[in-house]
Amino acid sequence: MARRPAKQDEDTAQAKPGVVWHEDSMQTQFANVVNVQGTREQVDIFFGTNRTWNAESGGQVTVELSNRIIMTPLAAKRLATILENVLREHERRYGALEVE
Predict the structure, then answer these.
(1) Which of the four pLDDT bands, split at 50, 70 and 90, describes residue 61?
(2) What is the bridge-based pairing of β-strands 33-38 and 43-50?
(3) From start to end of the chain, where are the E strands?
(4) Are 35 and 66 in contact (CB under 8 A)?
């Protein structure tokens, strides 16, 4: 006859270390413009979409801002590190990205 795990064993088995990602309320939005500003206490990242069809004409560029993410400088540093690693791998696979 198989032994049924004790309640404590079940709790330990269910509480595995790591991150549980809940995406039920997640929204996806496109952005082709980003801007960043910061203070000693926080870093603000603004995302938006360029709505100007002919930016080369020298006129104004219209950007529709859609999201602002506010984070601590430590979280921003972690984000910068993760982005650097992802982009390094992207360029290794697909070639260098040229930034204007």
Answers:
(1) confident
(2) antiparallel
(3) 33-38, 43-50, 63-71
(4) no
